[in-house]
Design goal:
This protein is mainly α. Helix content is 51%, strand content 0%.
Length: 90
């Protein structure tokens, strides 16, 4: 995390997601080569992702799919209903 900002930065999310992916992969006892074969994502991309957090969005979705986590992406950019402020004062 950036030492001058309390909020997480994009780079922090990249590394957090990569670490969570690695934990899920290992919980299934899959090697990097095995998840590469199952997902169609190159072994080099998986190695780079797990060390730097960098991966194409398409490849990330493929990995999420084989790890049964694709539905986790449904909430991204979801439109939220605005709050009715009048209810707060009644």
């Amino acid at each position: 995390m950036n030492k001058f900002n309390i909020q997480k930065q994009p780079s922090d999310f990249l590394l957090d997601i990569a670490e969570k992916h690695k934990i899920l992969r290992k919980s299934k006892k899959w090697s990097q080569a095995e998840i590469s074969e199952r997902s169609g994502v190159s072994l080099g991309s998986i190695k780079r992702f797990e060390t730097t957090g960098k991966i194409s969005f398409s490849s990330l979705l493929q990995l999420a799919h084989v790890l049964d986590r694709l539905s986790d992406f449904e909430a991204i950019f979801e439109m939220k209903q605005p709050r009715d402020l009048s209810k707060l004062f009644n």
